[in-house]
């Protein structure tokens, strides 16, 4: 039998121990790496956690619901006919930003709010080269205006919301992205420079409406033009507009702008029917968004007296969503309109289950202190 070299045995044993120790160390390292997120230290400072949205990001429905109330429909009588456009409340002086091509050379215009109220506005400034104008509505003074993105520009890929009144349909919202920047166009008497190109279409009647940041609700621009039949729109950056409107607001071209009585002249039957329909739609938009205070504010004083707010709110707490399936104007007289609707409601039962129900409702909409209100209403379940 050959003799065993002691040195060889010791070397083999030592190697085995080293291999075992190395394996154990690797296992510990893997375990630690598997259960941790490792970030390399930055020479510029500590790495902060990356959030998908900022802390100020808001829900899409909330942004639309809050800002639609501050968007108006403008009607202007010009030599060649009636022009319609949009605008939005810019400050606490009751000043509304719109496009200059909307107001033309008119001195005054009709301003319709989302609740159907109509005021007279006076043009206190209009651009010669930049397509922007400012309309003062004294009755809107003191009201909380839209939030303005004063210190930043939008970038390609930013998500946006365009609000306006295409074809006179108030409270219309379209979503898209900034698909291009620094676009230049010549349309009519105006030279547009540095426009935002957006994937949200701008239709007739939407000109002058605001372009909002999808996540903060801040105004990024003034919607001004669209490509016919295409999902392309163009918006003037609000940073271009601010120097002009701030000067006009401080130095209005019209020396005196007096409040009106809340309506301009006599509302025609067609206008009353349209405004009444919008008011009913606004009511259910508020209900859908859980804005029960806003919905309650649309009721007439007699209705509010008979049904206090807490009782009104309790009646909708189990309503998860509402959709108007059919809306018809049944009758219109001198100062009121009757609106009939069929609604689909997703409701929560007392047992916590969800069910879909259908109701037929009729509302009487009329003027109260110069504002349209839901004066009466009845509803019955049809299935």
UniProtKB/TrEMBL annotation:
The keyword DNA repair is annotated on this UniProt entry: no
Keyword Hydrolase recorded: yes
Pfam families, per the entry: Trypsin_2
Transmembrane portions of the chain: none
Domain of life: Bacteria
Gene Ontology biological process terms, A to Z: proteolysis
Single GO MF annotation: serine-type endopeptidase activity
Keyword vocabulary terms for this entry: Hydrolase, Protease
PANTHER family cross-referenced by the UniProt entry: PEPTIDASE S12 (PTHR43343), PROTEASE DO-LIKE 8, CHLOROPLASTIC (PTHR43343:SF3)
Name of the protein: Trypsin-like serine proteases, typically periplasmic, contain C-terminal PDZ domain
């Amino acid at each position: 039998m050959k003799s065993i070299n002691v040195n060889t045995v010791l070397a083999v044993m030592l190697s085995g121990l080293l291999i075992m120790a190395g394996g154990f160390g690797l296992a510990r390292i893997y375990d630690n790496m598997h259960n941790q997120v490792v970030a390399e230290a930055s020479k510029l400072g500590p790495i902060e956690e990356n959030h998908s949205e900022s802390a100020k990001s808001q829900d899409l429905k909330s942004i639309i619901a809050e800002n639609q109330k501050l968007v108006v429909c403008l009607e202007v009588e010009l030599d060649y006919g009636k022009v319609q456009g949009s605008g939005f409340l810019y400050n606490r002086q009751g000043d509304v930003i719109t496009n200059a091509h909307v107001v033309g050379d008119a001195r005054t215009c009709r301003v319709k709010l989302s609740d159907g109220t109509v005021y007279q506005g006076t043009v206190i400034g209009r651009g010669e080269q930049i397509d922007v104008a400012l309309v003062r509505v004294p009755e809107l003074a003191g009201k909380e205006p839209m939030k303005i993105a004063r210190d930043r520009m939008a970038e390609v890929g930013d998500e946006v919301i365009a609000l306006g009144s295409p074809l006179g349909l108030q409270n219309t919202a379209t979503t898209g992205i900034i698909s291009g920047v620094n676009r230049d166009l010549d349309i009519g008497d105006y030279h547009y420079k540095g426009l935002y190109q957006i994937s949200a279409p701008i239709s007739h009647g939407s000109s002058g409406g605001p372009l909002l940041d999808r996540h903060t609700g801040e105004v990024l621009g003034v919607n001004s033009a669209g490509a016919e039949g295409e999902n392309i729109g163009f918006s003037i950056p609000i940073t271009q507009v601010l120097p002009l409107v701030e000067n006009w607001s401080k130095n209005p071209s019209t020396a005196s702008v007096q409040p009106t009585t809340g309506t301009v002249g006599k509302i025609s039957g067609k206008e009353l029917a349209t405004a009444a329909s919008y008011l009913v739609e606004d009511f259910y938009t508020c209900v859908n968004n859980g804005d029960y205070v806003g919905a309650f504010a649309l009721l007439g004083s007699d209705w509010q007296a008979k049904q206090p707010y807490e009782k009104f709110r309790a009646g909708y707490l189990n309503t998860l969503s509402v959709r108007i399936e059919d809306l018809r104007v049944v009758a219109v007289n001198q100062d009121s309109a009757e609106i009939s609707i069929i609604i689909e409601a997703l409701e929560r039962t007392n047992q916590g289950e969800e069910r879909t129900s259908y109701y037929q409702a009729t509302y009487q909409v009329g003027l109260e202190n110069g504002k349209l209100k839901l004066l009466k209403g009845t509803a019955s379940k049809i299935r």
